[in-house]
């Protein structure tokens, strides 16, 4: 299986099994030249034997996040009944930015196969939430909104699909609204990002900022590698900007 197999096997952990593993197997066996489903199945079995102890601990790897992202991205991109090239370009651009060109090329090769597959969003999300931390799941939702906004606006079907995914991932309404507000230019967006209302006191604003800065700090994704910490920094900066905007509006010190 060559370089592609090395990329796939080196990073993936829990995603090599369950419903996500079945999706990967379909994409590999049907859409990647020179690789058979038998080769992939053997790769799955070998990898799972080698990392059984890690699987029992339930720790997600950088590769797990990468594959989960590809699958959920395909769901959002197809949610409005069309595939927009700008959204595909957004996925590729961010994968190149996070992982480098060679790794991104492998990922996109798999992504092209995933896009052809009918996916049970609920089953995929159930597998993800069993193995990924809350911070990692928040980062997934943030990236999905970025994909949806790549063509200039988030359509209603896209927003509904991301909301459904968030529910399956056990992301509560406050966290969902906070991330969503980062992609909408509304009068109260800064307050929504901090999970408060305009009626909050200055003390409550400061307390909310400290809480959200801690929640969205890039170090929360340290276990997934530096590439994901860099991606998480965008959320963190949005929280900081929201706080500075509110301070300026209120004349807070």
UniProtKB/TrEMBL annotation:
Gene3D superfamilies: DnaJ domain (1.10.287.110), TerB-like (1.10.3680.10). SMART domains: DnaJ. It holds the Pfam family DnaJ. PROSITE patterns: DNAJ_2. InterPro entries: DjlA_DnaK_co-chaperone, DjlA_N, DnaJ_domain, J_dom_sf, TerB-like. Transmembrane segments: none annotated. Residues 189-251 form the J domain. This is TerB family tellurite resistance protein. It comes from Tenacibaculum pelagium.
